[in-house]
Amino acid sequence: MQRATSLEQRVDAVAHRVLFGAPANGVRAGLIEFAVFVLKQAWACIFGAALLVVIVAAHLWYPDDAALARNDALTIAAVLIQLAMLAFRLESGRELWVIVLFHITGTVMELFKTDVGSWAYAADGFLRIGGVPLFSGFMYAAVGSYMVRVYRLFDLGFERYPRRWLTAILAVAIYANFFTHHWWWDARWVLLAGVVMLWLPTVMHARIWRRTIRLPLLAVFVGVAVFIYLAENIGTWAGAWAYPDQAEGWQPVSPSKLTSWFLLMIISVVLVAWVYPPKVPAALLQRVQAAQAPL
Asked: Which of 102, 142, 201, 274 is deepest in the core (most CB within 10 A)?
């Protein structure tokens, strides 16, 4: 199990005291497990949720005539959120390096995509690179933050996880396709087929509290992509950025973006897997070791 931060250890100790004596079976036990699942997911999403709240608040209440451009204010707020995550022991230093990788990967893509007109940001502020305000990289970092935190909070284990070198090759191909499809054939459907082939046999084990649930990993990927897509709709509604078909007024993001987010999330999974190698579930490992033990 990945080591919890000091604050998480204290929260975990309080939670165990509160839940001490809770029933192990029945409807109440199921409701407790569900509540713990929701709270852990919320804890894992804290960076992205805080950033989304700031984006919506800026849309609703930030004055148009403020001396500090809204995009610059969003960048400063994103930096402060990241510093608070470290100061309050919500992230470890090792996790920060993973998030920095997401930040760099996302910013490079943003520079290219805005240059070719895939989407656009308001042209204000000084904290920017070309047409890309610096807060945009934090949106990718939010995905990375969720990935590393959910891995730790649910003590994730995997049956039949594909070889990491194969996943790395596929992730590089996915990342390259985000660039090359603008002047060459869009290979996303081939890449999606590759994702299915690699991860279809994989089952994820997630420990809630007393119970450990088993889920097909591909279904988990789809669920996370849908969640990111919903957050993207909120972000575009709040004016953080806009797609060409939203230039005359906001409308829901095209559902076709679901495939883009699904593939981008695969890159995120592969990056996390290189820092936190996927492990075999403890119960399965014990059975394998027992079967291999000499008689």
From this structure: 142
Is residue 16 pLDDT above 60, yes or no? yes
> Do the Cβ atoms of 279 and 158 come closer than 8 Å?
yes
Quote the distance between the C-alpha of residue 1 and its chain's center: 20
Task: Using the structure block, give the residue that is written with the tokens 């890309």.
Answer: 132
* 47-82 pLDDT tens trace: 999 999 999 999 999 998 899 999 999 999 999 999
Amino acid at 107: T
State whether the Cα torsion 95-96-99-100 is positive or negative: negative
**From the CB of residue 265, how many other CB atoms can be counted at a distance below 10 Å?**
22
Which of left, alpha, beta for 62 (phi over 0: left; psi -120 to 50: alpha)? beta
> Are the beta carbons of 36 and 207 closer than 8 angstroms?
no
Please give the model's pTM, rounded to 2 decimal places: 0.87
